Backbone:
């Protein structure tokens, strides 16, 4: 498998939990979104960018836009974590805030995340689609 880096931002904990599970499964490296250095991004073939969705905003959108010149020729997988389902208008709106030229070159997944202490716990099985995609 290609050398993989997971870049994540988590405010409420769900994304961090998913990122760590995915790191264990893929034997990849992991770094917090605001700590990653440009030089580090250059070292990897595959970049998985993960963040929660917060009131129609995803930190990963700014990260992708800022770093796109460096990662555009890599395999980029985006994972949005949030309480709203993928087909919810707010989820769609968040996704559409990713610039179109970037959306056209990434693989996007939306998975369930808790809203604070509300809702069911996140489950490792939510990562199965992502893992299957990466291992094929």
Residues:
């Amino acid at each position: 498998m290609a050398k993989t880096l997971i870049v994540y931002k988590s405010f409420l904990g769900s994304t961090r939990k998913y990122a760590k599970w995915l790191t264990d499964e893929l034997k990849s490296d992991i770094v917090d979104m605001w700590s990653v250095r440009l030089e580090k991004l250059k070292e990897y073939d595959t970049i998985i960018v993960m963040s929660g969705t917060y009131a129609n905003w995803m930190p990963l959108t700014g990260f992708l836009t800022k770093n796109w010149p460096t990662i555009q020729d890599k395999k980029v997988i985006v994972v949005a974590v949030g309480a709203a389902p993928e087909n919810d208008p707010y989820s769609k709106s968040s996704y559409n805030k990713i610039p179109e030229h970037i959306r056209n070159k990434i693989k996007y997944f939306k998975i369930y995340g808790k809203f604070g202490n509300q809702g069911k716990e996140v489950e490792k099985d939510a990562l199965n689609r992502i893992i299957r995609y990466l291992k094929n």
